[in-house]
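Here is one chain, start to finish.
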Amino acid sequence: MSGPALKHVDSHNAIHEAALIEATELTELLDRLVTENQGDKALELAFIIVEHWETRTLQHAESEEEGLYKELAAESPELKDSIISLTRDHNLLRLLVKKIKESLDAGGINDQVVQHFQALILVDQLHNQEELKLLPHH
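Its structure:
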């Protein structure tokens, strides 16, 4: 069973927004460091941003899949396709994080890594918009 915050649209949205704002600010700083050729600082920050995505967004996604999505599907079978799409978004986020970690481990930091972080933000924004449409509005 999901916690009350996950099922209430305002608090659920607040969880998403806070994580996304932090990720956006960190990624903008990373972009600046890469542009200024501050490789060591950029690499250190990139690992912090990966940890942010893993602990904030991906853990949240996992709890949604284990609780909220199952509950929504049980209550409203017509939402099955939407829930499959939202789960696919989570998988895209996981794949992007995995790709970023592989890039960081292989060659450090570069523009492509920054672009992958920006793609994470975009996928998450679009995902959140779709997800909010499914949540009950009280």
